Design the sequence.
């Protein structure tokens, strides 16, 4: 076996298809979000504006968060020192889990190193806790959910995206008495559409199923206190397990699940992805706690972010650029061709100082390649205009189709 040649062949395939991914070396500057410094491959550096970050509200540089992290760092040092079962549980971890449980009005919560690990570990252990379980999964669920279900080694059925009629058909075919879990998301991050949460909960009640929702792109962003779409729509009490992240709207790092005390105790006790992983540093836990507390009591950033997202979508649609508007904060502009998608991204960065990553297969299906913009509360009107004008210029330069606004 020529291992080197096999690697060359695999990487060449990515290049040929236009979906080879490159790291953009950026340096965030405290107090200057959404601006950053791009360290280009040729050794030069230049100021850029980040338009694709998941720090949706800029909380990664918020004074309340930084102050809490500095205090915890000075008090405890850098790392946690171990797994949660062996010296890695601190007062900061317990405070964070209490804050998360309160956010989602659940009895308990469990913090993981990321929301990916939280999904993987939890969804893989539920079939262990409930033998003969069958999991029904939305076809556009995140890779972490798919991975967790796969690792659970249980029977699974995939229902068409947001199709409750198809979900009902699958539920009706399950023999009575089997444990059932319905796994889905609140906001699907590639299109920004929202799952039919209430209808899925109705079916779960009818067929005796547990509900598992991924609120990663909604926590901190929706609801009176930032509890997500489930809080906004008064459906939190109907969801059995809620997955969320501390790395997007909350601007720090980590993920979690919130549920009943008994459910959390079982996951804590049986999930290898939790048991054998070093816990997040106390300073990170303190920062996340401060971020959640701030956004529970201050809706200003959420409101401004939604305003900026609406303005950007309106202006891009006014140019005839193809984007799906589902009323959320995510702004996906469809290109539909991987090479041109990468070209647009490169030109925006090199010629306009605008950083947005191309989203290509396998993150999205082939033929649906896109640029996904995430405006924040501090993207100013001037920055919005710069982006819109650049997209107008490059759409024409790349010979991409526009919508017929006169039709």
Sequence:
């Amino acid at each position: 076996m020529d291992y080197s040649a096999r690697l060359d062949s695999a990487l060449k395939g990515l290049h040929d298809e236009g979906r080879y991914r490159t790291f953009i070396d950026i340096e965030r500057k405290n107090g200057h979000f959404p601006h950053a410094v791009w360290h280009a491959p040729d050794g030069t550096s230049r100021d850029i504006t980040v338009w694709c970050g998941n720090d949706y509200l800029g909380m990664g540089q918020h004074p309340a968060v930084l102050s809490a992290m500095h205090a915890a760092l000075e008090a405890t040092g850098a790392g946690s020192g171990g797994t949660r079962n062996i010296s890695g549980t601190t007062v900061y971890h317990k405070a964070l889990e209490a804050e998360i449980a309160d956010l989602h009005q659940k009895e308990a919560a469990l913090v993981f190193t990321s929301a990916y690990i939280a999904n993987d570990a939890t969804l893989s252990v539920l079939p262990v806790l409930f033998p003969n379980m069958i999991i029904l999964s939305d076809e556009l669920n995140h890779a972490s959910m798919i991975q967790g279900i796969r690792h659970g080694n249980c029977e699974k059925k995939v229902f068409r995206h947001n199709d409750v009629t198809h979900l009902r058909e699958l539920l009706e075919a399950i023999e009575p008495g089997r444990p059932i879990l319905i796994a889905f998301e609140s906001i699907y991050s590639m299109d920004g559409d929202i799952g039919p949460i209430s209808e899925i909960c109705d079916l779960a009640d009818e067929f005796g199923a547990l509900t598992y929702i991924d609120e990663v792109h909604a926590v901190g962003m929706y609801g009176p206190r930032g509890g997500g779409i489930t809080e906004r729509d008064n459906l939190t009490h109907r969801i059995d397990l809620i997955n969320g992240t501390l790395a997007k709207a909350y601007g720090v790092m980590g993920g979690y699940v919130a549920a009943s005390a008994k459910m959390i105790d079982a996951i804590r006790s049986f999930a290898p992805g939790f048991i054998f992983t070093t816990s997040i540093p106390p300073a990170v836990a303190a920062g996340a706690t401060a971020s959640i507390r701030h956004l529970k009591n201050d809706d200003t950033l959420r409101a401004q972010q939604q305003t900026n997202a609406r303005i950007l979508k309106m202006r891009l649609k006014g140019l005839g650029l193809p984007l799906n508007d589902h009323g959320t904060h995510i702004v996906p502009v469809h290109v539909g061709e991987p090479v041109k998608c990468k070209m647009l991204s490169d030109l925006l960065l090199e010629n306009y100082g605008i950083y947005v990553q191309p989203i290509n297969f396998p993150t999205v299906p082939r033929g649906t390649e896109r640029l996904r913009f995430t405006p924040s509360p501090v993207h100013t009107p001037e920055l919005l205009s710069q982006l819109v004008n650049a997209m107008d210029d490059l759409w024409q330069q790349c010979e991409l189709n526009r919508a017929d606004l006169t039709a």
About this structure: The mean pLDDT is 95. The two ends are 59 Å apart (CA to CA). The chain has 14 helices and 16 strands.
